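Board notes (copied after class):
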Amino acid sequence: MKKILACILCLLMLSSLLSCAGSKETATNTNKKEPASSPSVETPDENAGTSSESKGTSTPTPTPTPVDPLEKKKNNTATKTEDDLDVIHVGLYEFALADGRKLAYTADGKLTLVSAETSENTEFLVSFQNAGTDKTGRAGVRYILYCGDSVSKSVYCLNNSLSVKDSTDNNMSYNWNIEEHEDGTVSLRNVSNKRYIIVDSDKPEGSMAPDATAQKDFKMNLISEGTSCFHQTISEKGNVILRINDKVKVRGDMSYERQAKLANDLQIAYETYYELTDYLVWDSIIARVYRSEPYFGYIYPNWNVISFDLTSAIQDLGKAVLRDDLGINDWNFCLLHEMGHMFDAYRGWKFHAEFCTNMKVAYVLYKNSDVDARAATSGYSYKDCFDGAHIKDMWNKIPVMTSSTGFNLDRLLYIFVSYAETIGWDNVKKAYHEIQHLPTQETDKYKCFELFTNTMAKYAPNNLNVKDTMKEGELDIVLAGI
C-alpha cells in the first residue's frame, strides 16, 4: 500500500514539474520583443491588450502574460514620416520655369538659368529645418537648398543678392519658405528678407523681388528621394528628427532600428524638459550627425539644430550599442546636454549655461528611471553609465571647492543635484515654473543665481537653501566662477 501511495505521489510531482516547465516556456515566449507598431499621432496605451477580460465570447480563455511596459518603452522604434509632418520630403529636386529652363548653380558661386536639356549642376538637395510652428515669429516651414547631394554649399541671400556659399545652417539668409500654389508651381521666399527668387532673361544670374511675379514660379521636380548624406529618423510624436550619416551605422554598428529607438528616447527627454520648465520654443528639434564640426557637440543660440561631430559620434553612439549588450539603456549624454540648452534661452534661472543644462539632464534621468534611462559623458567606458539615482556620482570628483581648486562645475552639479534629491525634484520643478511665469525674465547671472536658489528654498522643507549646504568658502568661489 505504501509503495502504491509513493508511486502516486511521484506521478503527481512529475505532473506538477511538467506543468511549471510549460508555464515558464509560455512566459518566455510572450516576453519576446514585439515588432514596432505603426506610427500614430497619440502614444499607444502601454496597457493596451493586457486586460484579463475576454470580450465577445462566453468561453473562458487563459489570461495572457502581459508584455512588460518597461520593455515596450525601451524598445520603441515606431516613427513618423515626412507626410505626417506635412513637409516636403528630403530629396534631390530640380526647379524649372514654364518654358523648361532650370535653376542651376555655377562653380564660381552664382545662380543662373540653363536650358531644359542641361542636367549639370541643376539638382538641389531640399532639407526641411523645422516642422510645426516655432515661437520665434518665423513663419512656416523652413528649408535649405543645398547644391547637389551634399551639405557643403547652399543657396544664400543677402539683401537683394543671390549666391551659393558654404553652408551655415543657423543663418536665416540660408533658409527658405517654399510656397506651393494650386497650379503645382512653387515660389522660393527667403526667410530673412522675405523676398522671392526671380530668374529671367533680363536677370540671368538671379535676383530678389519683394512681391509675386510670374517669373518666380517654378515647377519643383523630384529627382530622387532622400540623400546619401544622412539617414533621417523622425520620432513617434514628431518633435525630434535625427539625421545620422551611415558611417555611424557601419563603423558604430548603430542600426536604423536602434536610431529609431534613440529618436524616441530623445522625444521623451524633450517632453520631460518641457514638463520641468514649462518653457518651449521649438516644436521640432533636429540633431545633425553627418559632418565634421568644430566642437564635439554644440548648438547655436536661438536655433533648433543640435550639431554632433561625426567622428566623435561614431565612437560615442557606438558605445550605446555596446551598452545594449549589457542591458544598459543609454540615451546619449551629448544629445541630452545640447537639447537641454534649448530650454534655457533667456530664462531667469540661467546663471551658467553648462550647469543649467546638466542640472536638467539629471532631472530627465531621474524622471525616466522607470525605463532605466542612463547617460555618461564621452570620457567613460561603455561599461559605465549613470541612471537618475547615481548621475551625481559622475560629478563627484572633488570633496570641496577651495582657493586652490577654484570654481569647479562638477562640484557645483554634485551640490545642486544632492540638494534636489534632499528637497524633492517636484519642489525644484515648482521653482522652474514660478520663474518661467514671472512678468519679465532676469538676465543678470548673479541675480539669476539668487532667484533660482531662493525660489527653490521657498518650496523646500524648512526653507532649506542650497547655499546653506555648501561647505565653508564655496559660495564665494561659486559667485566668482559663474
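Comment from the instructor: The radius of gyration is 28 Å. The chain has a mean pLDDT of 84.
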